[in-house]
Task: structure prediction
Amino acid sequence: MLCSCLVFTLSSGCADKAARVSLSPAPPTSEASVLRIAVLPMENLSGKEAPLADIRNAFIRSIAGQGVFVLSDDALDQFMTRHRMRYTGGLDSSTAQSIRTEERIDAVLILSIELYQEGDIPKIALISRLVSTGDTPTILWIKSVAIAGNDSPGLLRLGMIYDPVELRDKAIRILMASFEEYLSRKAAKQGQEETGLRFGPKAAFRAPEAGQEKSYTIAVVPFFNTGMRKDSGDILLLHFVEELNRQGNFRVVEPGLVRNSMLNARVIMNEGISLADADFILNTFNVDFVLSGKVIDYQDTISPDTPPSVDFLVWAIQRVTKKVFWASESYNAGNDAVFMFDFGKVTTAGKLASKMAAAVARRIAGEQDQLLPDLQVSPRQTAN
Amino acid sequence: MTVERTICLTNRNSDFLDRHMRILRILCLTLLISAYGCAHAGGGGGDTFRDSNMDFGSLQSVAVMPFMNVSRDQLAADRVRDVFVIRLLATGGLYVVPTGEVMKAITTLGISNPGAPTNEEMAKLGTALKVQGIFTGMVREYGEIRSGSSVANAISLSLQLTEAQTGRIVWSASSTKGGIGLKDRLLGGGGDPMNDITVKAVDDLIDKLYK
Result:
Protein backbone atom coordinates (compact mmCIF):
# COMPACT_ATOMS: atom_id res chain seq x y z
CA MET A 1 0.00 0.00 0.00
CA LEU A 2 2.74 2.38 1.03
CA CYS A 3 4.76 1.33 -2.02
CA SER A 4 1.92 2.12 -4.34
CA CYS A 5 1.53 5.48 -2.60
CA LEU A 6 5.17 6.22 -3.26
CA VAL A 7 4.92 5.20 -6.92
CA PHE A 8 1.79 7.31 -7.27
CA THR A 9 3.54 10.28 -5.67
CA LEU A 10 6.52 9.97 -7.99
CA SER A 11 4.48 9.44 -11.13
CA SER A 12 2.04 12.23 -10.39
CA GLY A 13 5.05 14.41 -9.63
CA CYS A 14 6.33 13.90 -13.18
CA ALA A 15 3.05 15.15 -14.58
CA ASP A 16 2.67 18.21 -12.46
CA LYS A 17 5.63 20.54 -12.13
CA ALA A 18 4.51 22.08 -8.89
CA ALA A 19 3.85 18.75 -7.29
CA ARG A 20 6.85 17.15 -8.93
CA VAL A 21 9.25 18.57 -6.40
CA SER A 22 9.22 16.28 -3.43
CA LEU A 23 11.46 17.60 -0.74
CA SER A 24 13.15 15.04 1.43
CA PRO A 25 10.71 12.27 0.46
CA ALA A 26 9.54 9.89 3.11
CA PRO A 27 11.32 6.54 3.38
CA PRO A 28 9.71 3.99 1.05
CA THR A 29 8.69 0.97 3.02
CA SER A 30 7.40 -2.34 1.80
CA GLU A 31 4.14 -3.98 2.83
CA ALA A 32 5.72 -5.44 5.91
CA SER A 33 6.65 -1.88 6.98
CA VAL A 34 10.34 -2.77 7.02
CA LEU A 35 12.52 -0.79 4.68
CA ARG A 36 14.39 -3.18 2.38
CA ILE A 37 17.60 -1.80 1.00
CA ALA A 38 20.60 -3.00 -0.94
CA VAL A 39 24.02 -1.58 -0.15
CA LEU A 40 26.03 -1.41 -3.36
CA PRO A 41 29.79 -2.07 -3.34
CA MET A 42 31.65 1.17 -2.60
CA GLU A 43 32.70 3.44 -5.41
CA ASN A 44 36.32 4.43 -4.91
CA LEU A 45 36.94 8.04 -5.93
CA SER A 46 39.99 8.46 -3.73
CA GLY A 47 42.41 7.38 -6.42
CA LYS A 48 44.16 5.20 -3.86
CA GLU A 49 43.64 1.88 -2.18
CA ALA A 50 41.17 1.92 0.67
CA PRO A 51 39.57 -0.77 2.87
CA LEU A 52 36.32 -0.61 0.91
CA ALA A 53 34.92 -3.93 2.13
CA ASP A 54 35.58 -3.05 5.78
CA ILE A 55 33.88 0.32 5.49
CA ARG A 56 30.90 -1.16 3.66
CA ASN A 57 30.54 -3.93 6.26
CA ALA A 58 30.64 -1.35 9.05
CA PHE A 59 27.85 0.53 7.24
CA ILE A 60 25.76 -2.60 6.85
CA ARG A 61 26.12 -3.44 10.56
CA SER A 62 24.99 0.07 11.52
CA ILE A 63 22.04 0.03 9.14
CA ALA A 64 20.90 -3.43 10.19
CA GLY A 65 21.00 -2.19 13.77
CA GLN A 66 18.31 0.34 12.89
CA GLY A 67 15.79 -2.34 11.93
CA VAL A 68 16.32 -2.06 8.20
CA PHE A 69 16.45 -5.15 6.00
CA VAL A 70 19.71 -5.29 4.02
CA LEU A 71 19.99 -7.53 0.97
CA SER A 72 22.62 -10.23 1.51
CA ASP A 73 25.91 -10.06 -0.34
CA ASP A 74 25.21 -13.34 -2.13
CA ALA A 75 21.85 -12.17 -3.43
CA LEU A 76 23.35 -8.81 -4.48
CA ASP A 77 26.27 -10.52 -6.24
CA GLN A 78 23.89 -12.77 -8.13
CA PHE A 79 21.74 -9.81 -9.14
CA MET A 80 24.77 -7.82 -10.31
CA THR A 81 26.10 -10.79 -12.29
CA ARG A 82 22.71 -11.43 -13.85
CA HIS A 83 22.40 -7.83 -15.00
CA ARG A 84 26.10 -7.31 -15.76
CA MET A 85 26.05 -4.39 -13.41
CA ARG A 86 29.54 -2.93 -13.04
CA TYR A 87 28.99 0.73 -12.22
CA THR A 88 28.14 1.16 -8.55
CA GLY A 89 28.27 4.95 -8.28
CA GLY A 90 24.69 5.48 -9.40
CA LEU A 91 21.43 3.86 -10.34
CA ASP A 92 19.87 3.83 -13.80
CA SER A 93 16.19 3.25 -14.38
CA SER A 94 16.41 -0.32 -15.74
CA THR A 95 18.50 -1.48 -12.77
CA ALA A 96 16.17 0.33 -10.40
CA GLN A 97 13.17 -1.46 -11.87
CA SER A 98 14.89 -4.85 -11.92
CA ILE A 99 16.08 -4.74 -8.32
CA ARG A 100 12.62 -3.74 -7.20
CA THR A 101 10.79 -6.51 -9.03
CA GLU A 102 13.33 -9.28 -8.59
CA GLU A 103 14.62 -8.62 -5.07
CA ARG A 104 11.73 -6.53 -3.66
CA ILE A 105 14.17 -3.78 -2.70
CA ASP A 106 12.71 -0.37 -1.83
CA ALA A 107 15.90 1.68 -2.03
CA VAL A 108 19.58 1.35 -2.79
CA LEU A 109 22.34 2.82 -0.66
CA ILE A 110 25.20 4.14 -2.78
CA LEU A 111 28.51 4.71 -1.01
CA SER A 112 31.44 6.66 -2.41
CA ILE A 113 34.78 7.15 -0.76
CA GLU A 114 36.41 10.43 -1.65
CA LEU A 115 39.48 10.33 0.54
CA TYR A 116 41.20 7.73 2.66
CA GLN A 117 44.52 8.54 4.24
CA GLU A 118 46.34 6.72 6.99
CA GLY A 119 49.60 7.87 8.55
CA ASP A 120 50.32 10.38 11.30
CA ILE A 121 47.09 12.26 10.83
CA PRO A 122 44.41 10.04 9.26
CA LYS A 123 41.71 11.51 7.03
CA ILE A 124 38.53 10.14 5.56
CA ALA A 125 35.79 11.53 3.34
CA LEU A 126 32.63 9.59 2.49
CA ILE A 127 29.51 10.41 0.52
CA SER A 128 26.42 8.25 0.81
CA ARG A 129 22.98 8.51 -0.67
CA LEU A 130 19.77 6.52 -0.61
CA VAL A 131 18.02 6.21 -3.96
CA SER A 132 14.54 4.81 -4.41
CA THR A 133 14.01 1.94 -6.81
CA GLY A 134 11.15 1.54 -9.27
CA ASP A 135 10.33 3.47 -12.43
CA THR A 136 11.90 6.76 -11.44
CA PRO A 137 14.88 6.52 -9.10
CA THR A 138 14.79 9.48 -6.75
CA ILE A 139 17.35 10.68 -4.24
CA LEU A 140 15.75 10.15 -0.85
CA TRP A 141 18.69 11.06 1.37
CA ILE A 142 22.25 12.21 0.78
CA LYS A 143 24.99 13.12 3.18
CA SER A 144 28.73 13.58 3.03
CA VAL A 145 31.31 13.64 5.77
CA ALA A 146 34.96 14.64 5.59
CA ILE A 147 37.02 14.53 8.77
CA ALA A 148 40.64 14.47 9.79
CA GLY A 149 42.34 13.31 12.97
CA ASN A 150 43.37 16.88 13.79
CA ASP A 151 39.97 18.51 13.31
CA SER A 152 39.53 19.11 17.03
CA PRO A 153 42.91 18.78 18.76
CA GLY A 154 41.60 20.42 21.92
CA LEU A 155 43.55 21.16 25.07
CA LEU A 156 46.95 19.40 25.17
CA ARG A 157 45.95 17.70 21.88
CA LEU A 158 43.71 15.33 23.80
CA GLY A 159 41.15 15.46 21.02
CA MET A 160 43.50 14.16 18.34
CA ILE A 161 42.59 10.93 16.58
CA TYR A 162 45.56 8.91 15.38
CA ASP A 163 43.81 5.62 14.67
CA PRO A 164 42.29 5.40 11.14
CA VAL A 165 39.74 2.82 12.30
CA GLU A 166 38.55 5.13 15.09
CA LEU A 167 38.23 7.97 12.58
CA ARG A 168 36.39 5.73 10.12
CA ASP A 169 33.92 4.68 12.83
CA LYS A 170 33.38 8.34 13.72
CA ALA A 171 32.62 9.16 10.07
CA ILE A 172 30.15 6.29 9.83
CA ARG A 173 28.49 7.38 13.08
CA ILE A 174 27.97 10.88 11.66
CA LEU A 175 26.40 9.48 8.50
CA MET A 176 24.25 7.02 10.38
CA ALA A 177 22.96 9.71 12.74
CA SER A 178 21.73 11.64 9.70
CA PHE A 179 20.30 8.45 8.17
CA GLU A 180 18.47 7.66 11.39
CA GLU A 181 16.99 11.15 11.41
CA TYR A 182 15.82 10.62 7.88
CA LEU A 183 14.25 7.28 8.74
CA SER A 184 12.44 8.77 11.68
CA ARG A 185 11.28 11.54 9.32
CA LYS A 186 12.72 14.22 11.55
CA ALA A 187 14.80 15.70 8.77
CA ALA A 188 12.07 17.26 6.68
CA LYS A 189 14.53 19.97 5.81
CA GLN A 190 18.14 19.29 6.59
CA GLY A 191 20.26 21.88 8.30
CA GLN A 192 22.24 24.32 6.19
CA GLU A 193 25.96 23.99 5.81
CA GLU A 194 27.67 26.86 7.58
CA THR A 195 29.45 28.66 4.78
CA GLY A 196 30.14 32.18 5.94
CA LEU A 197 31.23 34.75 3.43
CA ARG A 198 34.67 33.35 2.84
CA PHE A 199 33.45 30.32 0.89
CA GLY A 200 31.20 32.27 -1.46
CA PRO A 201 31.93 32.55 -5.20
CA LYS A 202 34.50 35.17 -6.16
CA ALA A 203 32.45 36.28 -9.16
CA ALA A 204 28.95 35.29 -10.12
CA PHE A 205 26.28 35.93 -12.70
CA ARG A 206 22.61 35.20 -12.17
CA ALA A 207 20.35 36.00 -15.11
CA PRO A 208 18.07 38.95 -14.39
CA GLU A 209 15.15 37.11 -15.96
CA ALA A 210 15.64 34.19 -13.58
CA GLY A 211 12.42 33.63 -11.73
CA GLN A 212 11.98 33.31 -8.02
CA GLU A 213 10.04 30.09 -8.22
CA LYS A 214 9.39 28.16 -5.09
CA SER A 215 10.85 24.98 -6.48
CA TYR A 216 13.02 23.81 -9.34
CA THR A 217 14.15 20.58 -10.87
CA ILE A 218 17.79 20.29 -11.81
CA ALA A 219 20.13 17.79 -13.43
CA VAL A 220 23.81 17.91 -12.55
CA VAL A 221 26.26 16.55 -15.10
CA PRO A 222 29.82 15.50 -14.24
CA PHE A 223 32.19 18.44 -14.02
CA PHE A 224 34.90 18.73 -16.65
CA ASN A 225 38.14 17.96 -14.86
CA THR A 226 41.27 19.88 -15.73
CA GLY A 227 42.93 19.38 -12.35
CA MET A 228 45.54 16.88 -11.30
CA ARG A 229 43.26 14.93 -8.97
CA LYS A 230 41.57 11.96 -10.61
CA ASP A 231 37.76 11.79 -10.42
CA SER A 232 37.43 15.28 -8.97
CA GLY A 233 34.71 16.04 -11.54
CA ASP A 234 32.58 13.21 -10.13
CA ILE A 235 33.36 14.20 -6.54
CA LEU A 236 32.28 17.80 -7.08
CA LEU A 237 29.13 16.60 -8.82
CA LEU A 238 28.17 14.67 -5.67
CA HIS A 239 28.84 17.69 -3.44
CA PHE A 240 26.59 19.81 -5.62
CA VAL A 241 23.88 17.15 -5.62
CA GLU A 242 24.01 17.10 -1.82
CA GLU A 243 24.00 20.86 -1.37
CA LEU A 244 21.28 21.53 -3.95
CA ASN A 245 19.19 18.80 -2.35
CA ARG A 246 19.76 20.40 1.02
CA GLN A 247 18.33 23.73 -0.13
CA GLY A 248 14.87 22.25 -0.01
CA ASN A 249 13.55 23.90 -3.17
CA PHE A 250 15.44 21.73 -5.66
CA ARG A 251 14.63 18.25 -6.83
CA VAL A 252 17.88 16.88 -8.14
CA VAL A 253 17.86 14.10 -10.71
CA GLU A 254 19.74 10.97 -9.61
CA PRO A 255 23.23 11.30 -11.18
CA GLY A 256 23.17 7.65 -12.29
CA LEU A 257 20.22 8.43 -14.60
CA VAL A 258 22.03 11.43 -16.11
CA ARG A 259 25.22 9.44 -16.62
CA ASN A 260 23.37 6.57 -18.28
CA SER A 261 21.46 8.81 -20.68
CA MET A 262 24.66 10.69 -21.61
CA LEU A 263 26.42 7.40 -22.31
CA ASN A 264 23.51 6.11 -24.37
CA ALA A 265 23.39 9.32 -26.41
CA ARG A 266 27.21 9.36 -26.77
CA VAL A 267 27.40 12.86 -25.30
CA ILE A 268 31.06 13.85 -25.12
CA MET A 269 32.00 17.15 -23.55
CA ASN A 270 35.27 18.45 -24.95
CA GLU A 271 35.19 21.63 -22.97
CA GLY A 272 32.16 22.20 -20.84
CA ILE A 273 28.60 21.66 -21.87
CA SER A 274 27.21 22.86 -25.21
CA LEU A 275 23.67 24.10 -25.69
CA ALA A 276 22.78 21.01 -27.73
CA ASP A 277 23.95 18.71 -24.92
CA ALA A 278 22.15 20.84 -22.35
CA ASP A 279 19.00 20.75 -24.46
CA PHE A 280 19.18 16.96 -24.65
CA ILE A 281 19.42 16.63 -20.86
CA LEU A 282 16.75 19.28 -20.23
CA ASN A 283 14.32 17.45 -22.49
CA THR A 284 15.21 13.94 -21.39
CA PHE A 285 14.56 14.65 -17.73
CA ASN A 286 12.08 17.46 -18.14
CA VAL A 287 14.07 19.64 -15.74
CA ASP A 288 14.29 23.41 -15.33
CA PHE A 289 18.09 23.63 -15.27
CA VAL A 290 21.14 21.66 -16.15
CA LEU A 291 24.21 22.39 -14.08
CA SER A 292 27.75 21.66 -15.16
CA GLY A 293 31.18 23.07 -14.53
CA LYS A 294 34.88 22.71 -14.61
CA VAL A 295 37.25 21.65 -11.85
CA ILE A 296 40.53 23.52 -12.02
CA ASP A 297 42.04 22.39 -8.76
CA TYR A 298 41.05 19.84 -6.14
CA GLN A 299 43.98 19.17 -3.87
CA ASP A 300 43.72 17.53 -0.52
CA THR A 301 47.13 17.75 1.02
CA ILE A 302 50.49 17.70 -0.63
CA SER A 303 52.20 17.88 2.76
CA PRO A 304 50.81 18.07 6.31
CA ASP A 305 51.41 21.83 6.38
CA THR A 306 49.76 22.53 3.05
CA PRO A 307 46.07 23.38 3.30
CA PRO A 308 43.58 21.78 0.90
CA SER A 309 42.53 23.89 -2.08
CA VAL A 310 39.51 23.76 -4.35
CA ASP A 311 38.94 25.81 -7.49
CA PHE A 312 35.99 25.38 -9.84
CA LEU A 313 33.61 27.10 -12.24
CA VAL A 314 29.88 26.45 -12.43
CA TRP A 315 27.49 26.96 -15.33
CA ALA A 316 23.74 26.43 -15.23
CA ILE A 317 21.59 26.59 -18.35
CA GLN A 318 17.90 27.34 -18.12
CA ARG A 319 15.29 25.36 -19.99
CA VAL A 320 12.97 28.27 -20.81
CA THR A 321 15.52 30.70 -22.22
CA LYS A 322 18.13 28.17 -23.43
CA LYS A 323 20.68 30.57 -22.02
CA VAL A 324 23.15 30.67 -19.18
CA PHE A 325 21.17 31.24 -16.01
CA TRP A 326 24.07 31.03 -13.59
CA ALA A 327 27.84 31.25 -13.90
CA SER A 328 30.30 31.52 -11.06
CA GLU A 329 33.91 31.16 -10.14
CA SER A 330 34.95 29.84 -6.73
CA TYR A 331 38.34 29.21 -5.26
CA ASN A 332 39.41 28.75 -1.68
CA ALA A 333 42.12 27.24 0.43
CA GLY A 334 41.59 25.56 3.78
CA ASN A 335 43.40 28.32 5.64
CA ASP A 336 41.58 31.26 4.09
CA ALA A 337 40.73 33.84 6.75
CA VAL A 338 42.50 31.80 9.44
CA PHE A 339 44.55 34.17 11.56
CA MET A 340 45.44 32.43 14.77
CA PHE A 341 45.57 29.00 16.38
CA ASP A 342 44.20 27.37 13.21
CA PHE A 343 40.76 28.51 14.30
CA GLY A 344 38.34 27.89 11.44
CA LYS A 345 40.84 25.91 9.40
CA VAL A 346 39.34 23.39 6.98
CA THR A 347 41.42 20.23 6.88
CA THR A 348 39.96 18.31 3.94
CA ALA A 349 39.15 19.23 0.36
CA GLY A 350 35.82 17.43 0.74
CA LYS A 351 34.67 19.70 3.54
CA LEU A 352 35.96 22.75 1.68
CA ALA A 353 34.15 21.72 -1.50
CA SER A 354 30.95 21.13 0.50
CA LYS A 355 31.06 24.63 1.94
CA MET A 356 31.83 26.23 -1.41
CA ALA A 357 29.12 24.22 -3.16
CA ALA A 358 26.66 25.21 -0.43
CA ALA A 359 27.43 28.89 -0.97
CA VAL A 360 26.85 28.54 -4.71
CA ALA A 361 23.68 26.47 -4.23
CA ARG A 362 22.23 29.14 -1.96
CA ARG A 363 22.85 31.84 -4.51
CA ILE A 364 21.39 29.73 -7.31
CA ALA A 365 18.34 29.31 -5.10
CA GLY A 366 18.08 33.08 -5.01
CA GLU A 367 19.13 33.74 -1.43
CA GLN A 368 22.22 35.73 -2.32
CA ASP A 369 21.12 39.08 -1.05
CA GLN A 370 20.69 38.02 2.53
CA LEU A 371 23.49 35.51 2.72
CA LEU A 372 26.31 37.04 0.75
CA PRO A 373 25.82 40.78 0.94
CA ASP A 374 29.37 41.85 0.18
CA LEU A 375 30.27 39.36 -2.50
CA GLN A 376 33.43 40.40 -4.25
CA VAL A 377 32.26 40.88 -7.80
CA SER A 378 32.60 43.58 -10.35
CA PRO A 379 30.73 46.70 -9.29
CA ARG A 380 28.78 46.51 -12.52
CA GLN A 381 26.86 43.45 -11.37
CA THR A 382 23.43 44.92 -11.26
CA ALA A 383 20.51 43.65 -9.31
CA ASN A 384 20.79 40.11 -10.62
CA MET B 1 69.32 97.10 22.78
CA THR B 2 65.67 96.19 22.45
CA VAL B 3 65.76 96.81 18.68
CA GLU B 4 68.82 94.55 18.29
CA ARG B 5 67.12 91.81 20.26
CA THR B 6 64.00 92.08 18.09
CA ILE B 7 66.07 91.84 14.86
CA CYS B 8 67.88 88.80 16.23
CA LEU B 9 64.59 87.07 17.06
CA THR B 10 63.16 87.88 13.62
CA ASN B 11 66.23 86.40 11.90
CA ARG B 12 66.00 83.28 14.01
CA ASN B 13 62.29 82.89 13.11
CA SER B 14 63.07 83.36 9.46
CA ASP B 15 65.78 80.63 9.55
CA PHE B 16 63.38 78.32 11.36
CA LEU B 17 60.68 78.87 8.73
CA ASP B 18 63.13 78.40 5.83
CA ARG B 19 64.39 75.13 7.24
CA HIS B 20 60.84 73.80 7.68
CA MET B 21 59.76 74.94 4.24
CA ARG B 22 62.73 73.07 2.75
CA ILE B 23 61.74 69.88 4.62
CA LEU B 24 58.14 70.33 3.48
CA ARG B 25 59.26 70.73 -0.16
CA ILE B 26 61.36 67.55 0.05
CA LEU B 27 58.42 65.69 1.59
CA CYS B 28 56.07 66.88 -1.16
CA LEU B 29 58.55 65.85 -3.84
CA THR B 30 58.97 62.41 -2.23
CA LEU B 31 55.20 61.98 -2.09
CA LEU B 32 54.83 62.97 -5.74
CA ILE B 33 57.52 60.52 -6.82
CA SER B 34 55.94 57.78 -4.70
CA ALA B 35 52.49 58.48 -6.15
CA TYR B 36 53.88 58.36 -9.69
CA GLY B 37 55.68 55.13 -8.89
CA CYS B 38 52.59 53.55 -7.35
CA ALA B 39 50.48 54.55 -10.34
CA HIS B 40 52.89 52.89 -12.74
CA ALA B 41 53.89 49.90 -10.64
CA GLY B 42 52.21 46.65 -11.70
CA GLY B 43 51.80 47.74 -15.28
CA GLY B 44 48.57 49.63 -14.82
CA GLY B 45 49.06 51.55 -18.03
CA GLY B 46 48.41 49.22 -20.95
CA ASP B 47 47.72 50.28 -24.52
CA THR B 48 44.06 50.61 -25.37
CA PHE B 49 42.46 51.04 -28.76
CA ARG B 50 38.82 51.87 -29.19
CA ASP B 51 37.13 52.34 -32.55
CA SER B 52 35.36 55.66 -32.30
CA ASN B 53 32.91 54.71 -35.07
CA MET B 54 31.73 51.57 -33.27
CA ASP B 55 28.44 51.62 -31.42
CA PHE B 56 29.30 49.46 -28.44
CA GLY B 57 25.70 49.61 -27.29
CA SER B 58 24.76 47.35 -30.19
CA LEU B 59 26.77 44.50 -28.68
CA GLN B 60 24.54 42.20 -26.70
CA SER B 61 26.07 38.75 -27.06
CA VAL B 62 29.72 37.88 -27.46
CA ALA B 63 31.83 34.76 -27.74
CA VAL B 64 35.26 34.34 -26.22
CA MET B 65 37.59 32.24 -28.34
CA PRO B 66 40.34 30.11 -26.76
CA PHE B 67 43.27 32.40 -25.97
CA MET B 68 46.68 31.96 -27.54
CA ASN B 69 49.35 31.06 -25.03
CA VAL B 70 52.99 32.03 -25.21
CA SER B 71 53.64 31.58 -21.51
CA ARG B 72 55.41 28.58 -20.01
CA ASP B 73 52.27 27.29 -18.30
CA GLN B 74 50.29 25.15 -20.73
CA LEU B 75 47.01 25.62 -18.86
CA ALA B 76 47.35 29.39 -18.51
CA ALA B 77 45.23 30.31 -21.52
CA ASP B 78 42.26 28.20 -20.41
CA ARG B 79 42.49 29.47 -16.86
CA VAL B 80 42.60 33.14 -17.87
CA ARG B 81 39.82 32.68 -20.40
CA ASP B 82 37.56 31.06 -17.79
CA VAL B 83 38.13 33.93 -15.38
CA PHE B 84 37.48 36.49 -18.12
CA VAL B 85 34.25 34.81 -19.27
CA ILE B 86 32.77 34.59 -15.77
CA ARG B 87 33.75 38.12 -14.80
CA LEU B 88 32.49 39.57 -18.06
CA LEU B 89 29.18 37.80 -17.52
CA ALA B 90 29.10 39.06 -13.95
CA THR B 91 29.14 42.65 -15.15
CA GLY B 92 25.65 42.08 -16.52
CA GLY B 93 26.51 44.21 -19.55
CA LEU B 94 27.11 41.45 -22.09
CA TYR B 95 25.85 37.92 -22.56
CA VAL B 96 28.71 35.48 -23.08
CA VAL B 97 28.06 32.23 -24.92
CA PRO B 98 29.13 29.15 -22.90
CA THR B 99 32.63 27.94 -23.71
CA GLY B 100 31.34 24.45 -24.54
CA GLU B 101 29.10 25.95 -27.22
CA VAL B 102 32.01 27.94 -28.66
CA MET B 103 34.12 24.78 -28.83
CA LYS B 104 31.31 22.95 -30.58
CA ALA B 105 31.05 25.73 -33.19
CA ILE B 106 34.84 25.69 -33.70
CA THR B 107 34.73 21.94 -34.32
CA THR B 108 31.68 22.14 -36.57
CA LEU B 109 33.11 24.97 -38.69
CA GLY B 110 36.50 23.31 -38.85
CA ILE B 111 38.44 26.33 -37.60
CA SER B 112 42.05 25.19 -37.48
CA ASN B 113 43.45 28.12 -35.52
CA PRO B 114 40.77 29.22 -33.03
CA GLY B 115 43.15 31.66 -31.35
CA ALA B 116 43.33 33.81 -34.48
CA PRO B 117 40.38 33.14 -36.77
CA THR B 118 40.15 34.78 -40.20
CA ASN B 119 37.50 37.35 -41.08
CA GLU B 120 35.46 34.71 -42.91
CA GLU B 121 35.62 32.40 -39.92
CA MET B 122 34.58 35.27 -37.64
CA ALA B 123 31.50 35.89 -39.76
CA LYS B 124 30.60 32.19 -39.73
CA LEU B 125 31.11 32.02 -35.96
CA GLY B 126 28.97 35.11 -35.49
CA THR B 127 26.13 33.49 -37.40
CA ALA B 128 26.50 30.07 -35.77
CA LEU B 129 26.67 31.41 -32.23
CA LYS B 130 24.31 34.36 -32.79
CA VAL B 131 26.83 36.84 -31.41
CA GLN B 132 27.77 40.33 -32.50
CA GLY B 133 31.30 40.36 -31.12
CA ILE B 134 34.14 37.88 -30.73
CA PHE B 135 36.95 38.21 -28.21
CA THR B 136 40.37 36.81 -28.99
CA GLY B 137 43.35 37.08 -26.70
CA MET B 138 46.89 36.16 -25.90
CA VAL B 139 48.50 35.25 -22.59
CA ARG B 140 52.06 36.50 -22.82
CA GLU B 141 53.24 35.84 -19.29
CA TYR B 142 51.71 33.70 -16.56
CA GLY B 143 53.49 32.40 -13.50
CA GLU B 144 56.59 33.04 -11.47
CA ILE B 145 59.20 35.51 -12.55
CA ARG B 146 62.62 35.86 -10.96
CA SER B 147 65.00 38.72 -10.51
CA GLY B 148 68.05 37.87 -8.47
CA SER B 149 66.83 36.17 -5.34
CA SER B 150 63.35 37.70 -5.59
CA VAL B 151 60.40 35.72 -6.91
CA ALA B 152 56.85 36.86 -7.64
CA ASN B 153 53.86 35.90 -9.76
CA ALA B 154 53.02 37.95 -12.83
CA ILE B 155 50.52 37.97 -15.66
CA SER B 156 50.52 39.77 -18.97
CA LEU B 157 47.48 39.57 -21.14
CA SER B 158 46.15 41.26 -24.27
CA LEU B 159 42.63 41.09 -25.68
CA GLN B 160 40.89 42.11 -28.89
CA LEU B 161 37.22 42.50 -29.65
CA THR B 162 36.21 41.98 -33.27
CA GLU B 163 32.88 42.81 -34.82
CA ALA B 164 31.67 39.42 -36.04
CA GLN B 165 30.03 40.45 -39.29
CA THR B 166 32.73 42.78 -40.60
CA GLY B 167 35.81 41.25 -39.00
CA ARG B 168 36.85 44.74 -37.88
CA ILE B 169 38.81 45.10 -34.65
CA VAL B 170 36.83 47.54 -32.54
CA TRP B 171 38.64 47.34 -29.23
CA SER B 172 42.02 46.18 -28.05
CA ALA B 173 43.79 46.44 -24.73
CA SER B 174 46.46 44.84 -22.65
CA SER B 175 47.23 44.56 -18.99
CA THR B 176 50.13 43.41 -16.87
CA LYS B 177 49.78 42.74 -13.18
CA GLY B 178 51.94 41.36 -10.42
CA GLY B 179 55.67 41.25 -10.74
CA ILE B 180 58.45 41.95 -8.29
CA GLY B 181 57.83 45.08 -6.29
CA LEU B 182 59.82 46.87 -3.64
CA LYS B 183 58.11 44.87 -0.90
CA ASP B 184 59.03 41.59 -2.57
CA ARG B 185 62.64 42.72 -2.94
CA LEU B 186 62.93 43.84 0.66
CA LEU B 187 60.78 41.29 2.45
CA GLY B 188 60.45 38.42 -0.02
CA GLY B 189 57.26 36.37 0.19
CA GLY B 190 56.68 35.55 -3.46
CA GLY B 191 54.11 38.24 -4.26
CA ASP B 192 50.36 37.84 -4.62
CA PRO B 193 48.75 34.48 -5.42
CA MET B 194 48.28 33.73 -9.13
CA ASN B 195 44.49 33.70 -8.84
CA ASP B 196 44.45 37.19 -7.34
CA ILE B 197 46.61 38.81 -9.96
CA THR B 198 44.71 37.04 -12.75
CA VAL B 199 41.51 38.57 -11.39
CA LYS B 200 43.21 41.99 -11.17
CA ALA B 201 44.39 41.85 -14.78
CA VAL B 202 41.01 40.68 -16.05
CA ASP B 203 39.16 43.35 -14.06
CA ASP B 204 41.56 45.96 -15.42
CA LEU B 205 40.75 44.92 -18.98
CA ILE B 206 37.01 44.88 -18.31
CA ASP B 207 37.29 48.38 -16.85
CA LYS B 208 39.06 49.51 -20.03
CA LEU B 209 36.33 47.91 -22.14
CA TYR B 210 33.55 49.75 -20.36
CA LYS B 211 35.30 53.11 -20.13
